[in-house]
Amino acid sequence: xxxxxxxxxxxxxxxxxxxxxxxxxxxxxxxxxxxxxxxxxxxxxxxxxxxxxxxxxxxxxxxxxxxxxxxxxxxxxxxxxxxxxxxxxxxxxxxxxxxxxxxxxxxxxxxxxxxxxxxxxxxxxxxxxxxxxxxxxxxxxxxxxxxxxxxxxxxxxxxxxxxxxxxxxxxxxxxxxxxxxxxxxxxxxxxxxxxxxxxxxxxxxxxxxxxxxxxxxxxxxxxxxxxxxxxxxxxxxxxxxxxxxxxxxxxxxxxxxxxxxxxxxxxxxxxxxxxxxxxxxxxxxxxxxxxxxxxxxxxxxxxxxxxxxxxxxxxxxxxxxxxxxxxxxxxxxxxxxxxxxxxxx
RNA sequence: CCGCCCUUAGCUCAGCCUGGCAGAGCAGCCGACUGUAGAUCGGCUUGUCCCCCGUUCAAAUCGGGGAGGGCGGACCA
Length: 345
Known about the structure:
- By secondary structure, the chain is of the alpha/beta class.
- It has 15 helices and 8 strands.
- The chain has 2 domains: about 210 residues, Rossmann fold (3-Layer(aba) Sandwich); about 120 residues, Tyrosyl-Transfer RNA Synthetase (Orthogonal Bundle), CATH 1.10.240.
- A 6-stranded mixed beta sheet has the order 1-6-5-2-3-4, sandwiched between helices.
- α8 crosses α9.
- It binds one RNA strand through α13.
């Protein structure tokens, strides 16, 4: 792949690159730079995870070596989102589901290096570095860096502060060039860029993915079922959720459905060389076919495309995308049941 | 280690003093209006009153014990 193409594939569908100059230089100098993303194995995986994992395949295509960190300790440190006893079961569920998503996207899961946080976060030099950061970082700085990631509450536990410092050190410990994550991770990685050089490590280049809006308007909430499509949702559940979704005619703001199309459906269809077909009753203008997201958005903004027609077609397309992942998950439900015994046990 | 405060609907809380059908707001659900949703309007639902024991005809409410959480004090080799 040509350097210019490489960069285009790496950066497409992203929210921000820090910094573009550093990335350009890295891709010019190195044949196989490395990138990592970390997931704390907490709640069930959803469509937002899918969009970030889709990107991993882009990275592979561009010749980057990809590491996925299953940040088990983080899942516990963030207000005990995952109880101590479930860390292992949820880590297994996350890794397996991520592999499934990569495969469904056309990538190679075996080419991904999976690391478990507790395998390297409990011994020197990691722990020595952690104590140095604990000594150097103010509580306010750590709190601010993690405020978009760590659960906010009255009387927060110390874990939330350690969380941000550990995530900074993960970048160094995994020895990667690029840190990739949702834009909510920005505060933490900016802290990492600031502090890692003081410990003698390189500062990472950062790639940030957009966060999908919730289907009910505003931010997506992992705790509200109707707020996002889950990877265990069947076709009927997806149709219901999209029908109930906030979707004002002509507006792209807080419009989760359009974002699903932009970041998940269209990229997938374009990979396959397919178009997006919206079936529509003749009285409303008949079927329409879109080759790219931009032309669909133009029609929607001009109100030439009605939300109900959009919802119907989007639900069908998303259900089709989710189906292989859902099927694989339920092929051996033990993994899911062990991870979420309250829901599936 | 000591003292004080808190625990009631999914959430925030009122009710406790002075025992008498367990409440409000928000959220949620259902309709109306929209070729979707939201907004608006109309209606509806929601409970281990933290746990145990006691007093009483009757306990969210009073008494005792316990658990969890918060605040403060003391200690600072």
